[in-house]
Automatic annotation (TrEMBL):
<comment type="similarity">
    <text>Belongs to the SecE/SEC61-gamma family.</text>
</comment>
<keyword id="KW-0812">Transmembrane</keyword>
<keyword id="KW-1003">Cell membrane</keyword>
<comment type="subunit">
    <text>Component of the Sec protein translocase complex. Heterotrimer consisting of SecY (alpha), SecG (beta) and SecE (gamma) subunits. The heterotrimers can form oligomers, although 1 heterotrimer is thought to be able to translocate proteins. Interacts with the ribosome. May interact with SecDF, and other proteins may be involved.</text>
</comment>
<comment type="function">
    <text>Essential subunit of the Sec protein translocation channel SecYEG. Clamps together the 2 halves of SecY. May contact the channel plug during translocation.</text>
</comment>
<dbReference type="InterPro" id="IPR001901">
    <property type="entry name" value="Translocase_SecE/Sec61-g"/>
</dbReference>
<dbReference type="GO" id="GO:0009306">
    <property type="term" value="P:protein secretion"/>
</dbReference>
<dbReference type="GO" id="GO:0012505">
    <property type="term" value="C:endomembrane system"/>
</dbReference>
<dbReference type="GO" id="GO:0065002">
    <property type="term" value="P:intracellular protein transmembrane transport"/>
</dbReference>
<dbReference type="GO" id="GO:0006605">
    <property type="term" value="P:protein targeting"/>
</dbReference>
<keyword id="KW-0472">Membrane</keyword>
<dbReference type="InterPro" id="IPR023391">
    <property type="entry name" value="Prot_translocase_SecE_dom_sf"/>
</dbReference>
<keyword id="KW-0811">Translocation</keyword>
<dbReference type="InterPro" id="IPR008158">
    <property type="entry name" value="Translocase_Sec61-g"/>
</dbReference>
<dbReference type="GO" id="GO:0005886">
    <property type="term" value="C:plasma membrane"/>
</dbReference>
<dbReference type="GO" id="GO:0008320">
    <property type="term" value="F:protein transmembrane transporter activity"/>
</dbReference>
<feature type="transmembrane region" description="Helical">
    <location>
        <begin position="28"/>
        <end position="53"/>
    </location>
</feature>
Amino acid sequence: MDVPLELSAYTRVLKLASTPSWEEFSQIAMIAGAGILLIGLLGFIIFVVMNAIPGV
């Protein structure tokens, strides 16, 4: 395990990384929020169906 070599690789990646613009950040946040809402809605629908059919 060569620690200096690994640290230089991490440094190179951090130098290439850039902060996203506000438009890019807001688009990613909206897509992630929509995914969270979709998963929550799916879980709620499964919950309602499981309570509506007591034998399941």
